[in-house]
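User: Teach me something about this protein's shape.
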Amino acid sequence: MKKKLILLILMLSTLTGCSVNNFLSSEENSAENTTSANAVSEKDSTVSAGSEINISRDQIDMDTILTEFDKNLLSDYDYSKLKDKDITLNVCNWGEYMAINEDDYFDVNDEFEKLTGIKVNYKTFATNEELYSKLKSGGGDYDIVIPSDYMISKMKKEGLIQKLDYSNIPNFKYIDKKFVGLEYDPENEYSVPYTWGIVCIVYNKTMVKKKITGWCDLWDEANKNNILMFNNPRDAFGIALTYLGYSQNTEDKKQLEEAANTLKQQKSLVQAYVMDEIFDKIGGGSSAIAPYYAGDVQTMIDENSDLDFCIPKEGTNKFVDAICIPTAAKNKQAAEMYINYLNEVQVAYANCDYLCYSTPHTGVYSLFDEETKANPLRCPPDEYLNEKTEVFINLSDDTNSYMQELWNQIKIEKSKSPWLVPAFLLISIALTFFLNIRRSRKKKQDIF
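Assistant: First, the predicted structure itself:
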């Protein structure tokens, strides 16, 4: 029996030397190599993740892979089956989070439209909370959304997203098993990972006065008025809690209050609470240091040699953004086709290269050069990921409400002008002086 098994393994390893076109089109080859430990629930799927995908750079023309869309690199999938249905797919994604309208890349959505006959109506959002509000209110008529881990859990719990039919998404086989069965979607019934990364620190080397080592530097007086902070409670509290040595997913009110007090202490040092504005403010030299997402930090550093990064010594948030289909979607089958398309090797590689985020796609990772694999912004070390990072989970409604209440208090105090108290005192003195004069005049009138 052992000899037969060894012979079978040798035969399979020989077969992997086939051409890339045959390899990409073979679902059976993927299934044979799948590890079942993290397979998608068989009840809702015919495809498993975590396959051993052996695509090498010398099998693909790396000089043109980003600029010229090559249909020969597509898997054996019928992208024409909905061509005459007059379908418009409404997609909502983070800003600057897909390779579209860029001179150095083929347009991902434009090629999908030409391939399928399906029109893509593309919209963006700035925060998970903004996307949630749109879906909750019924104002977002979307077929595809790409939220983050904890928000996926919340949307799933509230019935805002629906289960996927993986028979329409065979390219799920490319998803690394490390990103299957995570806490926000344990059976991977509702989401397909798109990108992942960590929150780190970006800073201007010419503006900071000493070496940057971690979150402690966002509370350093030496950086006063040059610090930017995230303008949303989950990220801001996550940083403060990590700085204090607590879990980013704590539901302990005392720990949350301590984090809120720490953020209040920081506010006198903070130049502004922002999100995407970090890119322009740090890149333009109007601010010196900020927390930001690793992929964007890489892009900023590529564009400005004065910038550098720090992976916080205290630890940080590891996030996964994944593709979902809202419950109210009108074009589920087309949406699943779009998800499969985004996981075609060439398409996924173009998006990953454009975004500079880490990839859960094994085919894309196999095309990285050694320099990229050694870059901690693109491929953070496993030891750090295992020991120093946490993935946000969906907190209870009570905890979310309390965190928001604490955040509102922080923001209100921040909005107060530093001149408000002196101005109030001056007005009070002037008013007292005026009233005293009036009283004096009134007494004189009464006397005479």
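Now, about its shape. DSSP finds 17 helices and ten strands in the chain. Residues 420-447 form the longest helix (28 residues). If you'd like, I can walk through any region in more detail.
User: That's plenty for now, thanks!
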